[in-house]
Amino acid sequence: MDCRVVVEAAVPVYDVETADEAVRIAVSKTGEMLNPDLNYVEIDMGSRTSPSGEELPPAFIAADEALVALELRMDVFNVDRDEHARRIARKEIGQRLRNIPLKVLSVEAIDGGEATERSSADEDE
Fold first, then answer.
1. Please, which pLDDT band fits residue 112 given cuts at 50, 70 and 90?
2. Where are the domains of the chain?
3. Which residues form a coiled coil (predicted)?
4. Cα 18 → chain centroid
5. CATH class of the domain whose range is 2-124
6. Sheet strands (E) in the chain
7. In sequence order, which ranges of 35-97 are alpha helices (DSSP H)?
8. How confident is the prediction for the chain on average, in pLDDT?
9. What is the Cα gyration radius of the chain?
10. Is 31 left (phi over 0), alpha (psi -120 to 50) or beta?
């Protein structure tokens, strides 16, 4: 079974003034920590909501420091079950993102054709 695992990361960013600046720096910082070993992990802005359901920006800023929510998407191949995919993704990403809190948001099974299309599209770039 192949799975797509989405992991949320809380990335601290220092000396920023705006949420957009914090997100750009967090994506860049995360990309540097993951590459070249995990260049197949996709990095996206995370989504946050308040308890009342209001959409919030992905970065919380206080005193020129920010905590940015990012979603890291990774395909895991040849696993027995969802829990196995979760553990592999957390281990692989967690080894490179030291001291960054991680939480697995979702695990979904993917068919072999979708994963093959995605990897061949990555090679074309």
1. low
2. 2-124
3. none
4. 21
5. alpha beta
6. 2-14, 42-45, 48-49, 55-56, 59-62, 65-76, 102-110
7. 82-96
8. 88
9. 15
10. alpha
